[in-house]
Specification:
Length: 357
């Protein structure tokens, strides 16, 4: 029986250690269920369900924004508990070599004091092998703590880069930012060079979000500091702006718009692997039967672009182009919006420009 406890304990410790390394070091998703995936799937599903019950949008965003930072502490607590349980099973199996361990409670207590390098001395291991194992466990505790501490600046650095770019998303109108307004704000005088320069910035932003959010998928659950804003809504706006530039504007396609479109679609595809089923890196399931946006959503945007004096293709030609460009990603966008309870609009908080004489 003692050998069985030791084997089970080693399996638990090894399983958790692999998950810690995969999450914090190799940043690769495991193909099987891991403690990180189970933790985020279960806790976010419950948290989001509570958030959906809040009718007021700002209060709902405030509630949901608490989850991201709190989840990091919760994940660390899960790892620590599992480590203590695993090592506790090991010490229970080796209780004849540890003075003071009589049952699982004593073994878990000794595992905790060793893992946190407290060492009260009320329970002591004797013999070379047992003492060596205490050093191994203590080293594992120190390394886990160091990895988590080193992990936090990386997480918040990526989060800050994502959010700082979103502060630049503006169409110079009051209220909400739209893709058509974004394009029109750059092209008021018929000069699209500034628009294409902005597309280059957003292409780099998509590449950075792709790298950071696929390596550390819990960043998907960190919401914007500003109420009414979301990185997903911002991505939808700039991606739609690229679609309008490619499919509506009456000019040859420019490389900047094509690259932004490709990077945006690649980012969404990486987060959701199939159109109707969310295989998000966190392993959170999504709802099904998401409809592609239909023509009535496009007509006001087309009218907004033509009203700005931008040369556009005939409507009968522009809509099929837009529909074809949207089709590879609109379902992905809708699935992620449902999973992460993202508001569909992007609000600007900048003050209006005074009327000049």
């Amino acid at each position: 029986m003692s050998a069985v406890y030791v084997v089970l304990g080693v399996i638990v410790v090894g399983f958790v250690a692999v998950d810690v390394v995969a999450t914090l070091v190799t940043t690769r998703r495991l193909r099987r269920r891991s403690p990180t995936q189970v933790f985020y799937r279960s806790t976010w599903t419950a948290w989001a369900a509570l958030g959906r019950r809040i009718d007021d949008g700002d209060r709902r965003e405030s509630f949901l924004s608490l989850y991201g930072p709190a989840s990091l502490l919760g994940l660390l607590a899960v790892w620590v508990v599992l480590f203590m349980l695993g090592w506790g099973l090991v010490w229970l199996g080796l209780r004849d070599r540890v003075h003071g361990v009589h049952d699982l409670a004593d073994a878990v207590y000794f595992a905790g004091t060793t893992f946190f390098t407290v060492g009260f001395g009320d329970i002591v291991a004797h013999g070379p092998a047992a003492r060596l194992l205490t050093l191994v466990e203590a080293l594992m505790g120190v390394l886990t703590t160091a990895l988590v501490i080193g992990y936090l600046p990386t997480i918040y650095g990526a989060y800050s880069r994502r959010e700082s770019q979103l502060l630049l998303l503006d169409d110079l109108e009051e209220g909400t930012v739209t893709a058509a307004g974004f394009v029109a704000s750059f092209a008021r005088h018929g000069d699209l060079d500034a628009l294409y320069a902005s597309f280059q910035e957003w292409e780099r932003w998509c590449a950075d979000v792709f790298d950071s959010h696929t390596a550390y998928p819990m960043l998907l659950l960190f919401r914007s500091r500003q109420q009414g804003r979301s990185w997903l809504a911002g991505l939808a706006i700039v991606l739609e702006a690229a679609v309008y530039t490619l499919g509506v504007l009456d000019q040859p396609p420019r490389r900047e718009a094509e690259l932004l479109y490709r990077r945006g679609v690649l980012l969404l595809t990486a987060l959701v692997k199939t159109p109707d089923q969310a295989l998000v890196e966190l392993g959170i399931p999504a709802e099904h039967s998401v409809a592609i946006a239909e023509e009535p959503f496009f007509r006001p945007a087309y009218e907004r672009l033509t009203a700005a004096g931008i040369a556009c293709r005939p409507y009968a030609e522009a809509w099929p182009n837009v529909r074809a460009l949207r089709e590879p990603y609109v379902r992905h966008l809708a699935v992620l919006g449902r999973v992460f309870v993202v508001p569909p609009t992007f609000r600007t908080h900048a003050p209006p420009i005074p009327t000049l004489a």
